[in-house]
C-alpha cells in the first residue's frame, strides 16, 4: 500500500537514508493514514542515534526534546519533526515509565514494545508498510488489541488500560476479549497513574463520538480502584449505559458533557463521586460545572418567565445559562420550552433590557448625590435594578432619580 507523505517528512526520511541509515513514520500517523484520517503529526523512527541525527540535520535547528529517550526534534520552516532512535525499554517498576531505555538497531524491537497493534506499524516509501503484529488486519476488523501479552503491556504502563477505551471511543472499535479481560484483571494498577494523565485520557473519551464508552470505566472496575465509584449493582450500571448515549446529543464541550454525566449518575443513584471533583480540572471548570448543574436541579424551565430569566442573568454569565438550556433540552427532550426561552432571550437582547447594575442609567455617584452613603448606596442600586427588571421602561436617569426620592 502507499501512503502519501508530506514533502518535509519525505525529505527527512530520504536524508537519513542518504546518510546510510533507515527511517520510517511510525505509530498513530500510520494508523490514521490507513484509516483515511489526516494525521495531526508524524513521528519518525530510525536506527540512527540521536547524535547522528543531530549531525545529519546540522543545517537545521535541533532540539534535544527527550535525548535521554532517543528523541531529537528537527525544526524546518517553523515546523517540528520528532525523530526517535529505535529503542528497547527496561523494567517498568512504577507501571508507568521504564527504569532505562536502550537503543537498538532493529525496527522489530522498537515496534514490539508499543501498546496496541494498530499503533505498532511503520512505513516508508522504500519498504512500504511494516506490519509485524497484524495491525492492518485489526484496523480492518475494528479491533483494539495489545501487542503481545496484554498483561505484560498493562503492567508496563497502566495508563494503557484507559487508552484502550479511548481508542475504542475515538475509532468506534471493539476491545478484543483477551485485552478486555486483562484490563479487568489488572485494574488495580491504575492507582499508580497520576490523576492528571487519567483526566487527559478521560477527557478524550467523553469528547469523542462515542462517549458512552465511559461505561467501561465502571464495568472494568477502573473507577473502583481510583476510589471514584463503589457501585457494584450491574443493573444500575446497565441503566446508566442506556442513558449515557445522550452525551452524543450534547456538543463537544467538556463542561456540558461533565454536567450531563454527573447529573445522570446522581439521578440513577449510582455510588459514584462527581468526576469534576475527583479528576483534575481548573477552578473555572469546576465553578461553571457547579453553576450549570445547580440550575438543572433547581430550576424548572416550564416556570421561567422574562423576569425570572433576567434575575438569573444578573447572577451568572449568559453563556452558562444557554448551556443550561441546551442540556435541559436534551435531558427532558423539551424542544418547545427551549425555543420559548430562546425567543425571550432574543427579545431581552433586542430591546437592550437591563438586568445588571452596570447597565442601570444611574450609578453610585448619582445615588450619593441624593444623600446616601456606604452600604446604603449598594442597597439602593439593587432596589432600582429589581424595579427595572420588572419594568424595563423605568431605566431612564430622570425616572430612576424620581424613584429614589420616593423611597
TrEMBL record:
Protein name stated in the entry: CCA-adding enzyme
Poly A polymerase head domain sequence ranges: 23-144
Keyword set includes Protein biosynthesis: no
Keyword S-adenosyl-L-methionine: no
Listed GO MF terms: CCA tRNA nucleotidyltransferase activity
Assigned protein family: Belongs to the tRNA nucleotidyltransferase/poly(A) polymerase family.
Entry EC no(s): 2.7.7.72
InterPro entries found in the cross-reference section: Bact_CCA-adding_enz_type3_sf, NT_sf, PolA_pol_head_dom, PolyA_RNA-bd
Amino acid at each position: 500500500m502507499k501512503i502519501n507523505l508530506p514533502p518535509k517528512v519525505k525529505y527527512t526520511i530520504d536524508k537519513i537514508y542518504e546518510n546510510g541509515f533507515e527511517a520510517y513514520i511510525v505509530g498513530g500517523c500510520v494508523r490514521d493514514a490507513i484509516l483515511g484520517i489526516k494525521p495531526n503529526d508524524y513521528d519518525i523512527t530510525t536506527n540512527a542515534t540521536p547524535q547522528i541525527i543531530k549531525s545529519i540535520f546540522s543545517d537545521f535547528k535541533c532540539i534535544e526534546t527527550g535525548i535521554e529517550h532517543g528523541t531529537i526534534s528537527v525544526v524546518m520552516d517553523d515546523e517540528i519533526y520528532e525523530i526517535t532512535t529505535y529503542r528497547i525499554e527496561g523494567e517498568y517498576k512504577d507501571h508507568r515509565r521504564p527504569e532505562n531505555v536502550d537503543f537498538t538497531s532493529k525496527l522489530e524491537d522498537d515496534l514490539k514494545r508499543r501498546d496496541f497493534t494498530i499503533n505498532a506499524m511503520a512505513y516508508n516509501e522504500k519498504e512500504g508498510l511494516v506490519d509485524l503484529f497484524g495491525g492492518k488486519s485489526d484496523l480492518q476488523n475494528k479491533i483494539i488489541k495489545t501487542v503481545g501479552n496484554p498483561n505484560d503491556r498493562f503492567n508496563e504502563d497502566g495508563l494503557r488500560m484507559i487508552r484502550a477505551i479511548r481508542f475504542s471511543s475515538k475509532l468506534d472499535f471493539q476491545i478484543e476479549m483477551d485485552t478486555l479481560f486483562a484490563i479487568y484483571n489488572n485494574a488495580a494498577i491504575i492507582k499508580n497513574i497520576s490523576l492528571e494523565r487519567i483526566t487527559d485520557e478521560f477527557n478524550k473519551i467523553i469528547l469523542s463520538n462515542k462517549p458512552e464508552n465511559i461505561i467501561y470505566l465502571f464495568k472494568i472496575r477502573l473507577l473502583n480502584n481510583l476510589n471514584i465509584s463503589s457501585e457494584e449493582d450491574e443493573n444500575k450500571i446497565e441503566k446508566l449505559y442506556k442513558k449515557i448515549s445522550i452525551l452524543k446529543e450534547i456538543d463537544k464541550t467538556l463542561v456540558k458533557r461533565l454536567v450531563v454525566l454527573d447529573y445522570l449518575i446522581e439521578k440513577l443513584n449510582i455510588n459514584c463521586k462527581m468526576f469534576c471533583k475527583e479528576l483534575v480540572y481548573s477552578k473555572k471548570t469546576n465553578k461553571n460545572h457547579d453553576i450549570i448543574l445547580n440550575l438543572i436541579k433547581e430550576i424548572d424551565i416550564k416556570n421561567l418567565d422574562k423576569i425570572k430569566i433576567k434575575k438569573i442573568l444578573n447572577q451568572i454569565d449568559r453563556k452558562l445559562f444557554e448551556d443550561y438550556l441546551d442540556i435541559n433540552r436534551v435531558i427532558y427532550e423539551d424542544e418547545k420550552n427551549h425555543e420559548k426561552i430562546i425567543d425571550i432571550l432574543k427579545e431581552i437582547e433586542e430591546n437592550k433590557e437591563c438586568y445588571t447594575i452596570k447597565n442601570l442609567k444611574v450609578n453610585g455617584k448619582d445615588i450619593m448625590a441624593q444623600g446616601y452613603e456606604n452600604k446604603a448606596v449598594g442597597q439602593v442600586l439593587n432596589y432600582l435594578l429589581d424595579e427595572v427588571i420588572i419594568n424595563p421602561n423605568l431605566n431612564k436617569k430622570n425616572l430612576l432619580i424620581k424613584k429614589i426620592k420616593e423611597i
